[in-house]
Amino acid sequence: MDTDTAAHRKRALRAELRERRQNLTSTERQAATVGITRNLIDLATDLSARSVACYLSTTIEPDTRPFVGWAVGHDIRVLLPVSREDGLLDWTTGDGETEVEGLFGMPEAVGELLGPIAINDVDLILVPAAAVDAGGMRMGWGRGYFDKTLGSMEKCPPVYAVVFDGELVSEVPRERHDQPVDGAVTPTRIVEFS
């Protein structure tokens, strides 16, 4: 698929998924949060993770905050991303509660900046996604921060995308820079890709 076609298909799919997320009821959202939190805790526990890279979810994303709170409460080191102007992610061990609006209006943690390579020391990486396909290809929201981060890592720990159930799709449009994930966590299951 040529790059223009893939980029166009991604824009259309992102718009559809964003609208679907915005139309979730508060009851659906609460149920999803309970399931996502349970599955993230199970995943971190199964991997014996002592350090996790996660992100602070926006109001329409699957809610990662209860998991971040659980991890901090269980002495798991949580690195949270901070967007930089140069397209890289910096990391901090913010408390998961104190936050500011980042470069693109996304919530970001407040804390001492540890540099882009801090992520090299985690046991598990949890990334946002618009969709993930059956082969583990992740489609993000179009800024490329996580693709760049994952693509630059020498040895990458397991990477899981956090999505709603309907965002596991048969295929996502792919461009050369896109990075696959090892699995996906949804409100109802943990999926591993081979």
Can you put this structure into words, describing what you see?
The chain has 194 residues and is α/β, with parallel strands linked by helices. The protein contains four helices and twelve strands. The relative contact order is 0.18.
Determine the N-to-C terminus distance: 23 Å
Number of strands: 12
- SSE string, helices as H and strands as E: HHEHEEEEEEEHEEEE
The largest beta-sheet arranges its strands as: 3-2-1-6-9-11-12
Q: What percentage of amino acids are in beta strands? A: 15-25%
Keywords:
single chain; 194 residues; 3-stranded mixed β-sheet; 4 helices
Briefly summarize what is shown.
The protein has 194 residues and is an alpha/beta fold.
Topology readout:
Layout: H1 3-22, H2 26-46, E1 51-53, H3 65-73, E2 77-83, E3 89-92, E4 99-101, E5 107-109, E6 124-128, E7 131-133, E8 138-139, H4 145-151, E9 159-162, E10 168-169, E11 183-185, E12 190-192
Parallel strand pairs: 1-2, 1-6, 6-9, 7-10, 9-11
Antiparallel strand pairs: 2-3, 4-5, 7-8, 11-12
Helix pairs in contact: 2-3
